[in-house]
Amino acid sequence: MRKILAFIAVCIPFTTVADEIQDRKQSSAAIIKEFAGALQNELKRAMAEGGPLQAIEVCNQLAPGIAAQHSKKTGWRIARTALKVRNTENAPDAWETTVLNDFEARKAKGEAVENLAHAEIVEQDGQRVFRFMKAIPTAEVCLKCHGAELAEPVKTKLDAYYPADQARGFNVGDIRGAFTISQPM
Q1: Domain containing 180 — which CATH number?
Q2: Which of 10, 83, 96, 168 has the greatest number of C-beta atoms within 10 Å?
Q3: Residue 143 falls within a domain, yes or no?
Q4: Whole-angstrom Cα distance, residue 29 to residue 56?
């Protein structure tokens, strides 16, 4: 009987932590879906109204506000990052860089980009933080601003807004970047 109670005492905390991680993963995936949907709606509208030049305006002027709105709503830090960033304010931290590199390795082994996600509880500034990332696949429409062959007006506008832009040269199916969430525990 003692062995059974000891086993239960050891397993219950792990089950609770595993359940909490699963709940946080689901919550994070849902808020990313909401954030991505809001951003995609704005980008689709901009592309329909003014093409890539207007979409650049959305990314530059509206995307940070959309992320801030979702962050305020949840109390979490919600953002986008990449190994090749357009906006230097979106540069990955060390943990995000590790996860992005892992995503690239997983993709190279055949895992579908749209399925790439990672969740982990980490120690950050003396506190436990739940971190979650979901890869952003490069679609055909993304190439108008992120591909190797950019129209001259697009290049000019990108250079004006993002002088340190690295987010070019992508192909359909590449990992464009990732949505990233930090939740205090």
Answers
A1: 3.30.450
A2: 96
A3: yes
A4: 26
